[in-house]
């Protein structure tokens, strides 16, 4: 790679398409979605222009003003001012503005212009502007502003050519133009001179919002959307799942039959195939969940949901702004906790970070799905609802309700009750592009499969090793696994976990589950496969635990997973975002206590009833 | 008495008069001005939240924002007669 000759940064209001441009220009695949505050970190990429210049491009979080009010806006301000440690001040700013929203975005453009750095204004979303009949006199705007103006369409492959040409051309001269005293008056003057706007908003948005924001209709719509997701995750994924399951079982049986009974067979079949296979089965469910999340993110509906739920969340000690970080946590708590950067108020931000691990992340889905599949009968309730889907829905609700309860307790504990702002922008609705959604799903699938092939496989093999060695000596009575390291560790832990109904196999599975929650499933599969005697084919985990565990134990384990803090990456990101070990200890401690307490109660009640 | 944005009826056109600071150097008021709540700007309430009519969705310029009542109370408006 040749030396970088130009440092360029993308700046602009939130949701104007900076990251979409960044991806288009550098070939990256950073997250793009239709709400303010998607990007919360600076991201660098490189591109080579036609003339052979090597350009380092920086994507920055969106900002309404250089007077930052949240940590993500502060990053943008610091980079623009050259105050960011480890980042040289950019040679050129590409200021991006949404062509359909110039009344708001041009004000920031004027603020950026006053910095005196060379800059180009990119009028993005020209396709959407044209559809709405908005006419912008580019040449006039360029003259009035005194900076080069180019039109872009970040969502089209051929939509950024002019911008690249302009970056490649000679740097526009540095002409410090003082900020006009009244930025808004200047914006009005520019718009009056260069922009024709038939309507202030898209007519379609107004129509949809009449329903989506309606006090009753809106809430109804939100419940239906949420409920549909969980029903679908359970019922639509089933056929695909059965297919994968059958494939894994057939492969295991074939390998078992084809190989002599030795350690290698045990490692391949019991360790690798059965362990990882038990997790791969959940790929369809995870993809379905992400399909819904991706479509919702791109549609522009999420900030509306945040609006509808704001009052409820404030009552519980959060804010409507917590909604998107918490919803992202359904995928994984790590990006969810990072997204909490868009919350201005430090206390709301902390509360959001602390309860984010209670949102049911996709890594917990395999655990829930396994246990529900084994212990909840497949039945139709009230004619339309799938009972297993209902239970899954209830588990998600349990996570949400406990998050609200925990946040409420934190609100009671904290003393200062100063108000804080919501100030949430509702973007224009957008139809998701099929190809973008498919690419997003493909990425999810490959991340998941890499996890399976990487950390999950490694841990499973490690666990196989621990449950196979040391081999039981001649004349040892009892199962060989009892003599192994894993057997001994499990038995030692059983003392702590017996009161909540966990057997030693579950105890063993909890340990590797710390690194990745799904591994709890593959570990159980391996432990049971290793303990299976002689000819018994390495069987499926589900019927096995259905036969061997009591319902009380299963329910207790399910409840444990609603709360349990065992995810190292989550604790690490809490540490990074809060810079405090104390908060990490607080999070881990309260989650562990909740998990143990709730499982204990569940186990007692279920034991008494069954 | 001044009319406030928080009391504006649904879908009635009004004009922003000013944003008041409720404390010295009020950051929320400053942000509201940045977002376009400045004298002479037309403004409308598009929706109200399901519980207690809070928050509001407000149309200012070409943009819609969700604001809590406490934020909207800072915005003094003139209602077209
Ligand atoms: N129609 C159209 N949509 C666009 C265009 N560029 C971006 N979008 C959409 O605009 C939305 C926001 O895009 P992002 O790239 O995430 O915006 P951003 O400026 O990086 O947003 P933040 O990171 O939140 O500041 C997404 O829904 C994109 O699909 C465009 O040129 N035309
Ligand atoms: Mg972005």
Describe this structure in words.
The complex is a heterodimer of chains A (610) and B (81). By secondary structure, chain A is of the alpha/beta class. Chain A is built from 27 helices and eleven strands. The radius of gyration of chain A is 28 Å and the shape is elongated. Chain A starts with 5 loop residues before the first strand and ends with a helix. Residues 534-538 of chain A have low confidence and may be disordered. The longest helix of chain A has 35 residues, at 434-468. Chain A has helices spanning 18-26, 71-81, 102-113, 126-131, 138-145, 161-168, 183-194, 203-212, 217-235, 238-258, 263-280, 283-299, 302-315, 323-328, 333-339, 346-355, 365-375, 387-413, 434-468, 480-483, 485-497, 504-510, 519-531, 541-548, 551-563, 568-578, 581-609, and strands spanning 6-12, 43-48, 54-59, 92-98, 119-124, 135-136, 149-151, 195-196, 380-381, 385-386, 424-426. Chain A has a six-stranded mixed beta sheet with strand order 2-3-1-4-5-7, sandwiched between helices. In chain A, helix 9 packs across helix 18 and helix 26 (568-578) runs antiparallel to helix 27. Chain B has 81 residues and is mostly beta strands. Chain B has one domain (3-79): SH3 type barrels (Roll), CATH 2.30.30. In chain B, 15% of the residues lie in helices and 43% in strands. Chain B has two helices and six strands. Chain B has helices at 27-34, 69-72, and strands at 3-4, 14-19, 42-51, 54-60, 63-67, 75-79. Chain B has a six-stranded antiparallel beta sheet with strand order 1-6-2-3-4-5. Chain B is globular. Chain B starts with a strand and ends with a strand. The A-B interface holds A 64-65, 67, 69, 100-104, 107, 184, 197, 200-201, 205-206, 209, 213-216, 218-219, 303, 306-308, 310-312, 314, 320, 419-426 and B 27-28, 30-32, 34-36, 38, 41, 46-52, 54-55, 57, 59, 61-68, 70-71. The structure holds guanosine-5'-triphosphate and magnesium ion. Guanosine-5'-triphosphate binds at residues 14-20, 32-34, 36-39, 61-62, 124-125, 127-128, 153-155, 298, 430 of chain A.
């Amino acid at each position: 790679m040749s030396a970088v000759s130009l440092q360029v940064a993308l700046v602009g209001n939130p949701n104007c398409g900076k990251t979409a441009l960044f991806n288009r220009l550098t070939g990256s695949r950073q997250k793009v979605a239709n709400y303010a505050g998607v990007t919360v970190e600076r991201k660098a990429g490189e591109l080579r222009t036609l003339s052979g210049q090597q350009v380092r491009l920086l994507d920055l979080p969106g900002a309404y003003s250089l007077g930052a009010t949240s940590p993500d806006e502060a990053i943008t301000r610091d980079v623009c001012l050259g105050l960011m440690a480890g980042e040289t001040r950019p040679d050129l700013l590409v200021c991006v503005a949404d062509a359909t929203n110039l009344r708001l975005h041009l004000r920031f453009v004027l603020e950026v212009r006053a910095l005196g750095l060379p800059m180009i204004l990119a009028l993005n979303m020209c396709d959407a502007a044209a559809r709405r009949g908005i006419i912008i006199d580019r040449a006039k705007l360029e003259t009035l502003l005194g900076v080069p103006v180019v039109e872009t369409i970040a969502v089209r492959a051929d939509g950024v050519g002019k911008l690249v040409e302009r970056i490649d051309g000679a740097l526009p001269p540095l002409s410090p133009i003082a900020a006009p005293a009244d930025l808004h008056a200047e914006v009005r003057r520019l718009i009056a001179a260069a922009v024709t706007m038939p309507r202030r908003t898209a007519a379609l948005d107004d129509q949809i919002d009449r329903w989506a924001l309606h006090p009753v209709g809106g809430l109804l719509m939100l419940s239906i959307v949420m409920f549909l997701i969980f029903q679908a995750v359970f019922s639509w994924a089933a056929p695909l799942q059965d297919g994968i399951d059958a494939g894994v079982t057939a492969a295991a049986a074939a390998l078992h039959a084809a190989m002599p009974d030795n350690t290698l067979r045990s490692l391949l079949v019991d360790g690798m195939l059965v362990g990882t296979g038990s997790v791969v089965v959940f790929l369809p469910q995870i993809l379905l969940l992400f399909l819904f999340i991706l479509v919702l993110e791109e549609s522009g509906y999420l900030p509306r949901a945040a609006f509808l739920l704001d009052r409820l969340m404030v009552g519980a000690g959060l804010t409507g702004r917590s909604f998107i970080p918490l919803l992202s946590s359904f995928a994984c708590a790590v990006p969810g906790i990072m997204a909490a950067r868009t919350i201005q108020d430090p206390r709301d931000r902390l509360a959001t970070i602390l309860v984010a691990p209670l949102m049911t992340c996709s890594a917990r889905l395999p655990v829930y799905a396994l246990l529900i599949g084994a212990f909840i009968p497949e039945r139709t309730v009230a004619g339309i609802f799938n009972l297993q889907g209902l239970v899954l829905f209830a588990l998600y609700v349990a996570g949400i309700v406990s998050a609200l309860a925990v946040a409420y307790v934190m609100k009671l504990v904290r003393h200062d009750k100063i108000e804080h702002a919501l100030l949430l922008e509702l973007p224009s609705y957008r139809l998701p592009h099929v190809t973008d959604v498919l690419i997003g799903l493909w990425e999810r699938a490959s991340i998941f499969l890499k996890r399976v092939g990487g950390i999950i496989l490694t841990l499973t093999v490690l666990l196989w090793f621990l449950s196979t060695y040391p081999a039981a000596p001649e004349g040892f009575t009892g199962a060989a696994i009892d003599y192994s390291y894993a057997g001994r560790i499990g038995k030692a832990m059983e003392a702590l976990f017996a009161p909540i109904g966990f057997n030693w196999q579950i105890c063993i599975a909890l340990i590797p589950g710390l690194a990745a929650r799904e591994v709890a499933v593959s570990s159980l599969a391996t432990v049971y496969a290793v303990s299976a005697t002689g000819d018994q084919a390495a069987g499926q985990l589900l019927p096995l635990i259905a036969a061997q565990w009591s319902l009380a134990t299963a329910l207790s384990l399910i409840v444990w997973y609603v709360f349990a803090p065992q995810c190292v990456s989550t604790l690490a990101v809490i540490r990074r975002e809060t810079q405090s070990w104390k908060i990490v200890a607080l999070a881990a401690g309260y989650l562990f206590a909740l998990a143990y307490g709730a499982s204990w109660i569940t186990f007692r009640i279920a034991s008494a009833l069954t | 008495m001044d009319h406030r944005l928080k009391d504006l009826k649904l879908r009635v056109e009004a004009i922003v008069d000013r944003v008041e600071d409720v404390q010295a150097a009020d950051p929320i008021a400053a942000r509201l001005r940045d977002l376009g709540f400045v004298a002479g700007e037309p403004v409308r309430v598009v929706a109200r939240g399901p519980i207690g009519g809070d928050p509001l969705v407000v149309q200012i310029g070409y943009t819609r924002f969700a604001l809590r009542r406490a934020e909207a109370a800072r915005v003094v408006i003139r209602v077209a007669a």
